[in-house]
Structure prediction request, 575 residues.
Amino acid sequence: MLGNEAIARGAYEAGVKVASAYPGTPSTEVSENIVKYDGIYAEWAPNEKVATEVAIGASMAGVRSMTMMKMVGLNVASDPLYTASYIGVNGGMVLVVADDPGIYSSQNEQDTRMIARAAMVPVIEPSDSEEARVFTKRAYELSEQYDTPIILRTTTRLAHSQGVVNLEDRLEIEDKVYERNIAKNVMMPANAIKRHIFVEERLNKMAEAANTLDLNKVEYKDTRIGVITSGIPYQYVKEVLPDASVLKLGLVHPLPKKLIKEFASKVDTLYIVEELEPVIEEQVKAMGIDCIGKEIFTVQGEYSANLLRKKILGQQLNLETPAEAPARPPILCPGCPHRSTFSVLKKLRIHAAGDIGCYTLGAVNPLGVVDTTVCMGASISTLHGMEKAKGKDYIKNWVAVIGDSTFLHTGVNSLMNMVYNQATGTVIILDNSTTGMTGHQDHAATGKMLNGEPTYAVNLDDLCHAIGVKHVEVVDAFDTVRLEEVIKTEVAREEVSVIIAQSPCALLKSYVPKGKCEPISEKCRKCGQCLVPGCPALTKKEDGTIAIDASMCNGCSLCMNICKFDAIELKKRGV
Prediction:
């Protein structure tokens, strides 16, 4: 199983009954697998804050619950998390948080353990798929034993690597009885100050118990080299230093101080091998223990066996230089509706405050219209801030662009803020009917739940009107003529306006291509305008005319609409 599949299996075996999440690479597959198990209610929430609050509610009601997210999603969920730490649990509650060393699919490289320490929430970290399954089950036991939510931390490498998993039967966990407890569950100041004392005591008890906890494992071999590690880096340590003594930490917060001191006293040279921040290292050094860590290792990116060979063993690695492959920068897919919208913005020389999603690729050539990307929902707020800083005229050649899923995630609040504070900006919702970048998950406006059942679909047009936007235009993203007219009209307004550029993602299973676009060479004037949007299906031939790769084209007609000489025609399906 993939690590994410194993976590889902562990949740099933642990008797979890409620799971809520927002898709975020590399955590998404946990939800997509957990929904397959009978006995678990699983859902997509509009954002990680809501997902965490759903899990908290289920825990309070007395059942085991789970919420899943990537590390930047934990930022969104931090508000309820910090308070949930004080409240504790009734039924066990686990937050699966996937970090992204190497920044393969994220906007930063933050370390979840840092947030967990601040929130005073324990962290468990598996190192392979089998441990992902087992540690998930243990997390629920510890959650209920110590009255605490627990974070199960993974990384991209574990989430998307496969390993052999031993399946066990599902535990039939009786629901805990709900009892009204204002002092525990209502975090008004007078109650919270008492619960803070409880949380500190809880962590101290767990730290003491961690010295003999089965999640932490000591492997004494050659004591000339000792390594303290956890998670995926443990695999690299075992590959490079098979004879070294190793303290493998499964519970990485709080740390087992006695166990660490005992281990350190028995080895000659101690290394701390951990990806990202020196969370373990700093605490070990604070105990007065000499160790080697970030002075030779990096705080950036993923580790590897070769990195350890070089840094610990001092090996000069004579690795063969791989053959240089042609550069393959990320691009929007053929038929992507975002390309059509961005091509119009480029033509009008309009800048876009961008957001998190596939459309971030509008920042690079050949489109080059997206100027900013911060976090989910920030495009709208960024545009608003620009106007308040520089005035209305400053943003006459700016818009905010945001996806349909991201708009429902946190964009709604930002748009509400624009209306409330009398802004004048234009927001373009790029509605491709899915959560595209994470692999085509449904959301509140698609009309389908996580399990595929039909449900009410939020109408984005009505929603925008409901929060006070008077001017909302819905446009086919590939109707470039009308889209251009609408953009010109809306950016000139002296009040907030919204354009919903609609067309489904070309990779959706339900998407039916219109046909294939074909060039008419004798009509081609070799102007190259059809190549400007950068569709990968189009190439220029040696004679200056264009060729269209039929295996890639899905007949979106963007190139045909751009061509002023009728040198491209659409061959419809079945014709």
User: Anything to note?
Assistant: The mean pLDDT is 93. Residues 189-209 form the longest helix (21 residues).
